[in-house]
Amino acid sequence: MPLVRLLLLLVVAASATTALAAQAVERTDIPRRGTLRVTVDPRIITWDRQYTNGTAWQPLGAPLTGDTVGSAAIPSVARIEQDVRTASGLSGFLASLGKGLFSVRQERRTFPISAELGVTDRLAVSVMVPIVRVATRTRLQLSPTGSNLGANPLATQAGADVAYTDFFTQFDDALTQLADSITAGHYGCPPCPQAQALAAQGAAVRDALRRTVYGVGTTGSPFVPLAQSDAGLAIGTTVGTIQQDLATAYNIPSFTDPFLLSVDSLNPDRMAALLADPVLGYGYRFSPFRNSFRIGLGDVEIGAKYRIVTGSRYAVAVAGTVRLPTAGRDFADDLLRQSLGDHQLDVEARLIQELTVAGRVWLNLAVRAGVQRPGTRFVRVAPPAAVLVPAQAGVLLSWDPGDYAAVDFAPLYRFNPRFAAGLTLGYWSRGRDHFTFRTSQDSTDLETRLGTATSAAVLDQGTSERWVRVGAAVTFVGASVEGGFSVEQTISGSGGRVPAATVFRIVLRKAWKVFGSGR
Question: What is the dihedral of CA 381, 386, 390, 391, to 10 degrees?
């Protein structure tokens, strides 16, 4: 309904006859000396698809969609997959959480309010305050069909911690006895290759199973194989064979406990619980399988524009903007998060040109480029393809966002002095971001938590952007209010993950004389 009311206001505003001024792309004109012009420019951007690495678009939920949801987008599942191969002897094991369908729709509503004051008839200064609302709508359908991983019993079964403690205590003691006997020269050692092989196999299986249950470093493990899956049965066979060999061939009968496997197939509720679990799971603050939104102040802009050429057929203006870090910081603890703003300093320069041809065709071209100053950002360190990343990967990094350039072009046809319509074409390019650790201790601490060395530069991948948008626009002008409406669609994207977005934009302007005489 707000959109309908704004459109009605545009129609009412077109009732008077004045020279056409509203435009879909930034114009060269400025308010005259002593005039204050206020612009309300609400924009709605929606998308449920994205371009990835220059390929055709894919749904946002693609990483958790398919007959086999597994290691491709979940680093912890990739690690479990390797450990299960070791523990089960199944070299071709592919981990699967089941058959999934994950639908995601993102929406971003920006409500910028700008005030421009004419210092002279050629120079104006401005301030823009944006209110930003971001929303995410999601739904997960997860079927146990084809699954071979379930929830870690430590998260679902009472007494699981005791069972695992007893199992690994027995396993460790048995391997220690075997190693002591080999060192003491029992079993015909040296060389006793069979005993040596059993000791090596036992140590590898024990370590793999320990990581499967407890994870690595301080990072937990949310999943273990299902008891009745091929991998679960193979692990049971492997453990049973090692126990039998220790008891019958080497007189070490103390290792008898079975390895506890999962009996809990995954569903959206169990997944949501594991995503929120800060120890075994991922430590996200909110379940991603529900609709969510947040609203707040974006990055405030202050600027100035100077009109160089003011001809009736051709006009040129230059402008500069400083974007302030006023938006709230991102939360790496929110899955599928959208930022309210970059929260760092930007400096942007623009060149705007207008050309009128044959009195009817109005060509408007705006070229802009911006330098984004370095800052800091709290992120979870993982490759860009990773969807579920544990909380232990979070660290505050030095962040140097890529600089950008853009071109906007709008050819419009003037049907009469009050109304024009035409097309829009937009191009945007932004360089790759660069992340680095602030101190060497930050890198060491992250390695301790994750159990492996991880470079901050892994985050640089997929951060550059290039896209092209096309659309249509109409403009209206009334006696005291002017406005416009446009719709644009992203038709190509490359460089990284580029939303295949649809953009709806409304522009409303009104001016008041605040000082000086005359117009």
Answer: 50
- Over residues 371-398, the pLDDT tens digits come to 999 999 999 999 888 888 999 999 999 9
* Among 128, 123, 510, 130, residue whose Cα is nearest residue 304: 123
| Residue partners of 13: CB distance under 8 A and separation at least 6 | 476, 477, 478, 481, 482, 483, 508
Residue spans of beta strands (DSSP E) within 361-501: 361-372, 375-380, 394-400, 404-416, 419-430, 434-437, 465-477, 481-494, 497-499
Report the 10 Å Cβ neighbour count for 2. Answer: 8
Report pLDDT for 333: 80
CB-hemisphere CA count at 13 Å for 409? 7
Which residues have C-beta within 8 Å of that of residue 102, sequence separation ≥ 6? Answer: 61, 62, 63, 64, 65, 138, 139, 140, 141
Q: How many CB atoms lie within 10 A of CB 151?
A: 26
H/E stretch holding 309: strand 301-310
pLDDT tens figures, 404-433:
999 999 999 988 878 889 999 999 999 999
CB under 8 A, 24+ apart: contacts of 187-196: 187/250, 194/249, 195/250
Q: How far apart (Å, rounded) are the C-alpha atoms in residues 430 and 466?
A: 6
Task: In whole angstroms, give the CA distance from residue 340 to residue 371.
Answer: 19
Return the residue matching tokens 């705007």.
352
Strands (E), 88-158: 99-118, 123-143, 149-151
- List, for residues 34-43, the tens digit of each pLDDT value: 999 999 999 9
- 284 DSSP 8-state letter: -
Residues 306, 308, 309: CA angle, nearest 5 degrees: 135
Looking at the chain, the whole-number percentage of residues with pLDDT higher than 90 is 63
23 — pLDDT class (breaks 50, 70, 90): low
Distance of CA 214 to the CA centre of its chain: 28
DSSP 26-79: --S--PPBTEEEEEE--EEEEESEEEETTS--EETTGGG-BS---TTS-HHHHH
Q: How confident is the model at residue 14 (pLDDT cuts 50, 70, 90)?
A: very low
Q: 108, 98, 138: which is closest to 47 by C-alpha?
A: 108
CA distances from 43 to 104, 262, 413 (A): 20, 48, 23
Two structure tokens written together for 68: 């086999």
The answer to whether the CB of 31 falls within 8 A of the CB of 514 is no
Torsions phi, psi for 45 (to 5 deg): -120, 125
Helix, strand, or coil (residue 165): helix
For the chain, what is the mean pLDDT?
89
Cβ–Cβ under 8 Å, residues 329 and 340: no
Asked if omega into 190 is within 30° of 0 (cis), the reply is: yes
Q: What is the CA radius of gyration of the chain?
A: 31
Q: Give the span between the Cα atoms of 214 and 221, in whole angstroms.
A: 6
CA–CA distance, 147 with 230 (Å, rounded to integer): 10
